[in-house]
Design a protein that fits this description.
The mean pLDDT is 94. Helices cover 40% and strands 21% of the residues. It has 210 residues and is of the alpha/beta class. The protein has a single domain, classed as LmbE-like (Rossmann fold).
């Protein structure tokens, strides 16, 4: 049984992103999630709600434990990189994962919090002797071509990946985990509407020390 850590910026990233792969891997591996922000952009009183939604989603996916770092949503930037890195490293040193799952260098959606987390993971990777591989969740171009205006810039998807995971057998689990994020229903419905016409698979870039 391998130990896998998933490191994401926000509650819902785990489900809206590689939720199918997490559910599939959870059948035979020990998986923990590190969530870096509280998901409460502009202090709308959503912190406790989004924490509970993530815990519900993680349970559906088969995740063993969730760790909250509680940075403010939208706050991850250069001035916090080292603080963020130290807190992520502290959690990873206790989990000691062999594999780590996060978003690609474009943050999948272009969200600057996502990009900050991936930058920190890339900086930590050579320093963590127990960590052997990173799986970067990424979007195929067939998906991004269907995305409406979302952020200022939504990066175009890719035409190939290092690893493609067939998640058709756990698709209902992924959908249930996504639906657990009730406060994000509009995003959930939009993403599921796009995914409904695409193959039930998740794409990854892979970085390995081996």
């Amino acid at each position: 049984m391998a130990i896998i850590a998933c490191v994401f910026a926000h509650p819902d990233d785990e489900a809206f992103g590689p939720g199918g792969t997490i559910a599939k891997l959870a059948n035979d591996n020990h998986i923990e999630i590190i969530c870096c922000t509280d998901g409460d952009h502009q202090d709308r009183g959503l912190k406790n709600i989004r924490d509970k939604e993530l815990l519900a989603s993680a349970k559906i996916l088969g995740v063993k434990q969730v760790h909250f770092l509680d940075f403010a949503d939208g706050s991850l930037c250069n001035s916090l990189y080292h603080q963020l890195a130290n807190q992520i490293k502290e959690k990873l040193d206790k989990i000691k994962p062999e594999t780590l799952i996060t978003f690609d260098e474009n943050g999948v959606s272009g969200h600057l919090d996502h990009i900050a987390v991936t930058s920190v993971i890339n900086w930590l990777f050579p320093k963590l002797t127990y960590l052997k591989k990173i799986l970067y969740f990424t979007n195929p171009i067939q998906l991004t071509d269907k995305i409406p205006d979302y952020f200022v810039y939504f990066p175009p998807g890719r035409t190939k990946a290092d690893e493609i995971v067939d998640v058709s057998e756990v698709w209902p689990t992924k959908v249930a985990a996504m639906s657990a994020h009730v406060s994000q229903k509009s995003d959930c419905d939009m993403i599921l509407g796009i995914l409904s016409d695409l193959p039930k698979e998740e794409w990854f870039l892979v970085r390995s020390k081996e």
